[in-house]
Structures are given as C-alpha cells and as structure tokens.
Amino acid sequence: MEPLLPSDPKHELEDLAVDVLRLSSALGVRLREPTRSSVAELLRPMNSYYSNLIEGHSTHPIEIDAALRAEAAGGDPGQQQLQHEALAHIAVQRLLDERLEKEPGLAICTPEFLCWLHGEFYQRMPRQLRKVRGPHDEEVEVVPGALRAVDVQVGRHVPPHHRSLDRFLARFAEVYEPSRLGKLERVVAAAAAHHRLAWIHPFVDGNGRVARLFTDAYLARAEIDGHGLWTASRGLARRRDDYFAALAAADEARRNDYDGRGALSDQGLRQFCAFFLRSALDQISFMGSLLDLDALEARIERFAELLTYREGLPPSTRDLLRDVMLRGSVPRGEMARITGTSERSARTLTSRLAGLRLLISDTPKGPVRLGFPLHAVGYYFPRLYPENVEQSFSGEPSATPRRRRRPAARR
C-alpha cells in the first residue's frame, strides 16, 4: 500500500493545499448563523444526489425531497429503493456531523469508525439493495458494518486478501490520523486517504460510499470543509470518468526506479491527489461565488419579485426575505416594521412564506430563518444541480423527471 503520502518534488500539492486552506477558511465566514447551517442542511440532499450519481444511480432531487417529506413513490419499487438509498446517505451524514461535534477526539481513521459508517448506512438500506454478486457469481448478502470475509476483484484491481485487512487498516489509521499531521499535510492526506481506503476495499459492497462519507469527516477534521458549505462529491460526480481514471492510475504498481520506493506508484498517487485537490478548489470557488452576499441578495430579491407575480404576494416579501437572509434570524415581532405593514398583514405574509417553506421556525412563535425548499434552490443557488435537473423543479419547461441509471461504479 506504500506510499501512503505522495512525494511532492515540485511543490504542486503544497501549493494546491495552501489554496484549499485559504479559500475554505474564507467560505466559512460568508454567512451568519443560522443561515449558514440552513445552507449546510440544503447541501446534504445535494451531496446524496451526487454520491448516487457516482454509483450509477440517478435519483432525481424531486424524488429525494418527496422521500424526506415521507412521500415515497407509489407503484415503483425500484424508485422507492433508490429513495431509501438517498435517505440512508442523508441520515448518516447527519449522524456523522453530530458525532464530530460531540466527540472532538473521535479517531476517524480507525476500523471501528469505518465499520460504524458502513453499518449505519447499510442497516437503513432495503434488503433488496443489500445483496451483491460474489466472486463466483453467487449471491452474497452485505452485513452492515462487517469487513469482507471473501476475496474480490474490482475491474483490474485485486484488493488485499481478506485475512490481511486488519493489518492494512491498522497501517491506514496510523499514517492518516489527522492529529499527527500538519495543516498542509492534512489537506494532501484527505486526498490520499480517499484513494487508499478505496484501494483496500474493506467491505463486500459500499466502499465508494464509505470512502466519500469518510472523506467528508476528514475534511471537517482538517478544518477545510468550510463549515459544511462545500462537498467533494459534487466535483467528483461532475468529472466521474476522470475520477475513476485517476483512481485506477493510483492503483498501479511502481513503474520504475524513479517512481518512489513503495509497492504502488508514487506518481499515480500524486496525480490522484492533484486531481482531487483541483476538484476541491473548483467546488470551493463555485460555492464562494454562490454565497457572495451581494449576489445572493440580488437573487433573493429577484425570486421575491417572481413570487409577487406568481403567488400574488405583496412587494414587501422582498424586504422580508432579504432581511432574514442578512441577519440570520428575525423575531416575529419585527415583521411589521420590516414590511411596513400592519401586524395582521405581517402575520399573514409570514404564514404564507412558511407554507411555501421559504421561512422556517423551530416553534410557532419563535424567530424565523430562511428556508431553502427545492422549488427555490434553482433561483437562490443556480447550477447547484445540473441545468436539466434544475429546470424540472424550478417551474421552467422540462421533461418529466425519470429515474435513470448509469453504468455501475468501479468501486
């Protein structure tokens, strides 16, 4: 499995790591709480959508949103299974965030943590999606949280023998533990660990999902996740073929005497890490452009004007949504002052916006904060989803959403 961290003779990875640290730090201070947390919550279904896409499953955001609101697709078992798959991913993301917050000393590179991720995901999966074909084309059931007890081959890659998994995972935990690495090393290690975990292939199935969830945890521990305001899966899914090619290149054995001193290619791992970090920079920059306050304020105002036309809401809707976005949350007693209307009119407007899920609150009389329902996402955050997908839930002309499958992922 060596090298576990690539050489960097031209300081290319170091330069990329510096940029990732700088831009992610700036991203985290763009929004006030609780608007920042609401955006991070919005990104969970998006992260699930792109993670599904990498696996070859295209679960439409409308279907994910319906599942989150307990409106499972009727009459289509296949679609329901994919909805459950998306819900499982979102649920584990929430659990992961909670554990990281409550357990600052949590060791995320250990076999125990990796098995926890796998177990939490697969115990939420329908039984039909827990079965895979074994090495001899036999049916094998995926046991949640259990390391594989069989040998497998993934494309041209032959992962380690199942009896040696403990040794490989112990070495993995020893090298990649974030607390043992410097700031820049942690950034590069996030990329390298992503590949090496997929290379070990510790589970019968679900290794790609576990690797991406683990990477989410690693980015948070390395303090480069921008408070949850960007996700690696979107960048990897948008360049899916390049992602798989980079993984495969890092699988290769050492090519010659100039390719490191480990069993695997140092150059291949370096190229994968560069690909991963460039993808991360692209996503951080993309989210930074979306979260620019002046631009976001302008998009919210344009959407409020559209609501005035479509829903018959008063022009003061613009002032209310803008104020809530800028301040993070607003007490209900200030609604009349913000909108310049009577208390009764302000309550009516607040109620209508709550019905559209554009304003949300923890209690009926508590402060309100901005909501990000699916029908508003394409206006607030354009290009978060692919254009043809956004059109289908933003009210623009589009074909009826259909469940699509892409070729299965190599991992």
What does this 3D model show about the protein?
With 411 residues, the protein is mainly alpha-helical. It folds into 2 domains: 22-290, Fido-like domain (Fic-like fold); 293-394, Winged helix-like DNA-binding domain superfamily/Winged helix DNA-binding domain (Arc Repressor Mutant, subunit A, Orthogonal Bundle), CATH 1.10.10.10. 57% of the residues lie in helices and 4% in strands. The protein has helices spanning 12-27, 35-54, 61-68, 77-102, 111-122, 165-176, 183-200, 207-221, 232-238, 240-251, 266-290, 293-310, 316-327, 335-339, 343-355, 374-380, 387-394, and strands at residues 57-58, 131-133, 139-141, 329-330, 359-360, 368-370, 404-405. It has a 3-stranded antiparallel beta sheet with strand order 4-6-5. Strands 1-7 form a two-stranded antiparallel ribbon. The radius of gyration is 23 Å and the shape is globular. Mean pLDDT is 91; it is low at 396-407.
List the helices and strands and how they pair.
Layout: H1 12-27, H2 35-54, E1 57-58, H3 61-68, H4 77-102, H5 111-122, E2 131-133, E3 139-141, H6 165-176, H7 183-200, H8 207-221, H9 232-238, H10 240-251, H11 266-290, H12 293-310, H13 316-327, E4 329-330, H14 335-339, H15 343-355, E5 359-360, E6 368-370, H16 374-380, H17 387-394, E7 404-405
Antiparallel strand pairs: 1-7, 2-3, 4-6, 5-6
Features:
single chain, 411 residues, mainly alpha, Fic-like fold, Arc Repressor Mutant, subunit A, 2 domains, three-stranded antiparallel sheet, two-stranded antiparallel ribbon, 17 helices, 57% helix, globular
Q: Tell me what the CATH architecture of the largest domain is.
A: Orthogonal Bundle
What name goes with the CATH superfamily of the largest domain? Answer: Fido-like domain
CATH class of the largest domain: Mainly Alpha
Instruction: Assign the CATH topology of the largest domain.
Output: Fic-like fold
**What's the helix-strand series?**
HHEHHHEEHHHHHHHHEHHEEHHE
Number of helices: 17
Average predicted local confidence, pLDDT: 91
The amount of helix comes to 55-70%
What is the distance, rounded to the nearest whole angstrom, between the alpha carbons of the first and last residues? 17 Å
Number of strands: 7
Rg from C-alpha positions? 23 Å
**Percent of residues in beta strands?**
under 5%
